[in-house]
Amino acid sequence: MSVSVELGDWGEIPSGWNRRHLLGIEGLSADEITLVLDQAERFKSVLMRSDGYENRNRKVSLLAGKMCVNLFFENSTRTKTSFSLAARRLGMDVIDFSASTSSLSKGETFIDTVKNLEAMQVDTIVVRHSCPGTAMLLSENICGHVLNAGDGAHEHPTQALLDILTIRQRFGRVSGLTVALVGDIAHSRTARSNIWGLLTLGAKVILCGPSTLVSRQWESLGVMVSYSLDEILDRVDVFNLLRIQFERQVIRPFPSTREYSHLYGMDSGRLSRTKKDVLIIAPGPINRGLEVTPDVADGQHSAILDQVTNGVAIRMASLWMCMSVKKQ
To answer: Which of 128, 166, 225, 262 is 20 to 30 A from 68 in CA distance terms?
Structure first.
């Protein structure tokens, strides 16, 4: 049975939010980021509460009658499913677009494809593409709303928001915490969005990994760079373990996966040298035994599955807030 939940006064669009699109974290103010986090908390509290109904079928039909298209040109499990579920929880109709079976294969341009979708009364497009700037390009060429689900190695805003929400839930704050992003910084859109969001909210950020994947040029953004995971273990409150993105690499940036795991993998030995209340998160998919060992990924310090749950709430908040702003 599907249950519609009345949200009450707090379901009104928060004052201070006037963005029709969510294209990235760079440029968002601390207040804007906090508005999305707070709204996600409200959605999560309603959807997770237990009052005799089956929570999985609970809906908050704020966007009933609206239509969302998932326009994914790269593989995805968590993000695509999470956006679909978030849209349906808000009462939207959802279309999953398949590029391989579309008219793109016949020579139709990307923009013409999207304009045809919009002509079918689509209200919102969630887009993932290998080319940086794709979401921005769409926002400049259509009348509907655009949410960036990852554009190349540029940004992945909702992933950063759910990461930050998970951190805030554990510590009650973000400001003053030290967060280490460990791994493939060079190819990670998640890293870029996290850097902008964490710095904006007052956290200290350390980038850690082999020199082939972590350039000193990142320090110009106000972050610290370390090439030794062992040297920073006792200084960090949160470790965000990034996946090694072999599919984006032209050459192998380290001699072997065994060496990488030996130098940068989070295992029980390293975990024992961290702070007692350390938090382990990862954007996924995780490569067990490479970036993190199974006992750490499934252990008490890990919030990896909490991130997945928070992803639905963050994407509900992002969809609803952007779609509540009308075009001027």
So the answer is: 166
Q: Is 56 exposed, middle or buried (0-12, 13-18, 19+ CB in 10 A)?
A: exposed
Handedness of CA 147, 152, 157, 158 (dihedral sign): positive
Ranges in the chain, pLDDT < 50: 1-6, 8-10, 52-54, 246, 249-250
**pLDDT value at residue 48:** 72
Domains present along the chain, CATH in parentheses: 3-155+309-323 (3.40.50.1370), 157-304 (3.40.50.1370)
Over residues 246-283, the pLDDT tens digits come to 455 445 666 578 888 899 999 999 999 999 999 999 99
Q: What value, to the nearest 5°, has the Cα angle with vertex 242 and ends 240 and 244?
A: 165
Q: Is 302 helix (H, G, I), strand (E, B) or coil?
A: strand
Q: Which two tokens stand for residue 174?
A: 């973000």
Pair 37, 16: CB distance under 8 Å: no
CA-wise closest residue to 183 among 220, 153, 227: 227
211 vs 311: CA distance, rounded Å: 31
Nearest Cα neighbor of 76 from 318, 311, 294, 316 is 311
Q: 1-15, pLDDT tens digit by residue?
A: 344 444 544 456 777
